[in-house]
Design a protein that fits this description.
The protein is mainly alpha-helical. Helix content is 66%, strand content 0%.
């Protein structure tokens, strides 16, 4: 089972338009600015290739499921703490309307 989930993460990360876009722009944000993301969750997101507010702001259902799989006993935190909404707000605050 663990091998299968690792493969899923690799495939999803490679195919994620948000991950590719942020990598191309070399955007790296302090994800702990999002309420509910501490260092442990930030490390998990980094392992999944998620390093920017832009990536979190544009997460889709497949990405959310993939992250929840990795959060294990903390599944649902992304939705509960509205990481996507917070990321959108922080992205707007950092870049204005240019995103």
């Amino acid at each position: 089972k663990q091998d299968n989930s690792a493969r899923l993460v690799e495939v999803s990360t490679d195919e994620s338009p948000a991950a590719a876009e942020a990598a191309a722009n070399d955007e790296i944000d302090d994800l702990t600015e999002i309420v509910g993301i501490g260092r442990m969750f930030e490390e998990t997101l980094h392992r999944l290739g998620i390093r920017s507010f832009r990536q979190i702001a544009s997460l889709g259902p497949v990405d959310i499921a993939r992250i929840n799989m990795e959060l294990r006993e903390f599944q649902g935190r992304l939705e509960q703490d509205d990481w996507i909404g917070q990321a959108r707000s922080l992205l707007h605050k950092k870049y204005g309307n240019t995103h």
